[in-house]
Amino acid sequence: MSDETRIEPSADVDATASIGEGTRVWHLAQIREHARIGPQCTIGRGAYVGPGVELGRACKLQNHALVYEPARLGDGVFIGPAAVLTNDEFPRAANPDGSPKTGADWDLVGVTIGRGASIGARAVCVAPVEIGEYALVAAGAVVTKDVPAFALVVGVPARRIGWVGRTGRPLEARDGELVCPVSGERYLEEAGALRPVG
Questions:
Q1: 64, 105, 132, 162 — which has fewest CB within 10 A?
Q2: pTM of the full predicted structure?
């Protein structure tokens, strides 16, 4: 990938946002004030990055992904097309007296995603939740609870159905361990968590 940063003319990037070297921001994307986008990222067409959101190195937001503040994404995080990271536990447009809500009426909560994790197309992560490193959230899932590192979660609400390795492939049981069929990396499951062996 080129080290040259590329921002399409139709993208709306606030002057206070920080865009890392080699990052590409595609058509009609919006990056709000004080957002920090790491180097070598890709921000797809029509994607939205809220104020103060932080993305690590080599993240990829696919077309129309919506990442609301105060989300924090580690290095190498993938957000699929039209996926949403929310920020309001109790959403309302108006107060009980009928007056429109203002920024002062919200207590923003965020989604935190660990290094290498992937969020599938049209999945929704309902804040506040934490997605562990290298976890994989299936397309269309609705995450309402924290997801452990390396977990494969599916459904509404999302539930763990297996484990994945750093390649994103489901792990296979072999001789009391879980093994990545691509890399050969080995893992052990202990007390509902996965840890690499060696």
A1: 105
A2: 0.94
